[in-house]
Amino acid sequence: MIVITKPCLTMQLSSKPAATNASPSPATITLDVTGMKCAGCVKAVEDQLGQLPGVVAASVNLVTETALVEYQVGVVDPGTMAQTLTEGGFPSQVRQSERSDNETDPQPNPLEEQRQREAKRQTQRLVMAAILLFLSALGHLGQWGWMSLPGLSNIWFHAGLATIALIGPGLPILVDGWRGLKRGSPNMNTLVSLGTLSAYWASVAALLIPRLGWECFFDEPVMLVGFILLGRLLEQRARNRAVASFQALVALQPRIARRVQPQTDPTTWDETATQVPIERVQVGEWLQVLPGDRIPVDGSVVMGQTLVDESMLTGESMPVLKRTGDLVAAGTLNQSGAIVLQATRTGKDTTLAQIIALVETAQTRKAPIQHLADTIAGYFAYGVMTISTLTFAFWYWVGTSLWPQVLEPIAGMVGHDHGMAMMESPALLSLKLAIAVMVIACPCALGLATPTAILVGSSMGAERGLLIRGGDVLEKIHAIDTVVFDKTGTLTQGNPVVTDCVSLNPQFSSDQLLQLAATVEQGTCHPLAEAIQTKALQQGLSLLPAYDFQTEPGLGVSGIVQMDDRPQRVILGNSDWLHQQEITFDSDTQSQVEWLASGGKSLVYAAIEGQFIGLLAVTDPLKPDALETVTGLRQMGLRVMLLTGDRQAVAIQIGKSLNLAPDDILAEVRPEEKAQTIARLQSAGHRIAMIGDGINDAPALAQADVSLSFHTGTDVAIETAEVILMRHPLTDVLAAIRLSQATFQKIRQNLFWAFAYNVMGIPVAAGALLPTTGIMLSPAVAGALMAFSSISVVLNSLLLRRSSQG
């Protein structure tokens, strides 16, 4: 949830409200999980969490190594979840940012330290594997027509290299593979381990029992370990590039604040400030921010003025002038002057912290298309081991008899003793093919396909002020065919101005009418209310004493106004609101209404003590980029519609300015009918995206397939929305849809290639081309291809940045 304070409201960004459950209430926690290597590991972690009583749902991200868990409070606690995963072979802990608020001091992160140590060890293992691979290659120079180095071509030397490779850099792979098999969730390391050990022990048997007539291929384990480690290092670096944007967002959080004492003299402050960790800053404290510093917490400026770069929050490049009383957000950059601010929100409550939390949650929420990959990944290793066994059985008992030519010698193959060609043994050929099947299969590519694309896409969105809640939202946006806009504050500027104040009761002048209207409207933050209050202020009209304000969303407001020494109820709103109060108009009023409405003006009716007294005409011009946005959506093949509670005449005027057809204009729709209108469009087969920001838009936003709202909207609209636009341009609607579609396209590409790689690679590794073309993949080549498949999926996700420029 992201909370941003405005003068009239508190804005909260959170996921769509979940259905209420009986006690105990559901909660969500994030766990840091290590030890995952592929999609099979992801499925294993989700299954372990799902088996715990009280866990409602779990979504695991292989790239960010996190698990987002929804659970029943009081039935299971986060510590138990982390302990269960740790005991199951996946060391885990509760994310530090979600621990008790009482833990104000920064705590060391053992999992992060473990990741750093593991990265260092991985590099060391790769260096060692590379040295072994180099020595292995030197031993075959003579076979390639080069100078033969004494001792290095000896088969016992190569056996020693293979042994060192397995007990040295390859040992963690073997250990993890065995653990996965032991706990009933075999993973990529299990497949690699089985293939590597099979090649090693087959070579040992050939070396110790020469009468078998097998060749020794000790180089295969050396090359396999080297290629696997190289692929993982490159893959990790590609992953780091994918998470770089998110890490840059996290890095915007300052770690130190300068605390100062509140001063009685507002023109000066004590320049001696105490530096304190950001975790110790309390709400209400005064903090000094110097030029070049980032704002440490959300707060209000109490002294000084400066220019603040808010691009990290809004995407706007121009700095914003901040004076006394203005709000500033954590992570924004103070550019020009020293200021003192009073903290209003700290820690997890700051705007930046909650944006980070929202982005991180979005990166964990999966697209429905990923569920197919997860389901397959859960059985992938078992399936591959079965295929590998069948491959061996087929070639040993059937294939070599049907196609005896496959046993013909291949001269000069790496691993042949003394470079001599020999006939392949049926058992050895079958074993090589079975090993290649196990090694080439890549569940890792399936696991990386969705999270890497979502990671890159959501990070890009955060940089551009587009907060997309998750992969499921991306998939829904991809399917929409109709975009429905609310009018006020969405298509229009949201800053209406009063153009006419018409008193239709001789007891009240136009100024008195405006004064009464402004008095009652102080009880709401609606744009029309602000326009009326601004007009009264411009004319120097003071507000009257009033109380008991009531708001009816989409209809109007009322309040008790102290007038002529007695309280009187004043009602302001649209015609439906007054009709509900049984307040009627005469024919003269109706003609006046039609004349004003023909000019595209919105009308506010006023009544006092049940008597109609006049009306105010307000116009709200379109946003400068409204036509561009609507045109852009149409060029994308989307139908654009206008949904408003305003009068038909006003809506038609707006529609003409946007080149909307009459059938695409839905006017005079009551708040409770907006959701019904969206439902009718859906029942006609349309997939709807709704854009709105008002209280009365919330039901329609919830009903729509996809909902978008600006961060300046009401809290209930933003809580309902699945895409939050942090900036003001309406064209960000275009940007959000384009980014979502591009990200989902990358997800589909990644999943296609991940599936296609395994569908095509496994048959080739199993010898499908061997009888006709003589093509056979050695285990080492299969291992290299497997590593490349994972890297290609991550790199394809990174291409999203290039394809989405501008």
Attribute tags:
single chain, about 800 residues, alpha+beta, seven-stranded mixed β-sheet, six-stranded antiparallel β-sheet, disordered N terminus
Count of DSSP strands: 28
What percentage of amino acids are in beta strands? 15-25%
Our Rg estimate from Cα atoms comes to: 34 Å
On the 0-100 scale, what is the average pLDDT? 82
Number of helices: 26
What is the makeup of the main sheet? 7 strands, mixed
Q: Point out poorly predicted stretches.
A: 1-22, 100-106, 410-421
Shape type: elongated
SSE-based structural type: alpha+beta
Task: Give the termini separation.
Answer: 29 Å
**Helical content, roughly?**
40-55%
Query: Strands of the biggest beta sheet: in what spatial order?
Result: 16-28-27-26-17-24-25
